[in-house]
Amino acid sequence: MSRYARLAFTAAVRAMQVEQGSRPAHRAELGAGVGLEPDPLGERERAFIAARDGCYLASVGETGWPYVQFRGGPPGFVHVLDDRTLGYADVRGNRQYITGGNLRGDPRVALFFMDYATRTRLKLFGRASVRGLDEDPRLTARLDAPRAGGRVERLVLIDVEAHDWNCPKHIPHRYSEADLARTHARLDALEAENAALRARLTARGEPPPR
């Protein structure tokens, strides 16, 4: 059983999987020590996170209610510091500080990194900690770019506990401005190639392709 499954598949979850007939699909061979240590981030996970321009982050408050916020910025604003640690510069938002306050009572967080264009989702469990900007100037400088615009108030580090990839089912196709710009650029290039080919054929006296 993976580390992610050990954390997510509680007794109640496993009971419901049995009730709904999906438990065999989630059963995995349990080797010695498998899933007991935090999952390291592999090359695929590191590259995927570094390419994202946003993520969903969930925390839990003292009332027991979860809170989800969207964190956005330029691709790579969530920095992969090593194979077990993420970090980002926390920029001032609406000044409710719900996530920041929640982390003071419970450091556990869950993150979704989404690529809607390819319908790909990376789920991650971790433990977040907050650092002051003056605590580690080198770290502050490292997380300062790229980052979301605005005033940086603190640094957030996330020690990765576990991660898992989701199937694309029910993830809608959506495209960012950057995705559309690349598509338009490719179409423009193809149209230019087609026009050049037609011009060469016309100069030779050959009929252009239809």
Automatic annotation (TrEMBL):
Residues 43-131 form the Pyridoxamine 5'-phosphate oxidase N-terminal domain. Gene3D superfamilies: Electron Transport, Fmn-binding Protein, Chain A. Pfam families: PNPOx_N. It comes from the Bacteria. InterPro entries: Pyridox_Oxase_N, Split_barrel_FMN-bd. This is Pyridoxamine 5'-phosphate oxidase family protein. It comes from Saccharopolyspora gregorii.
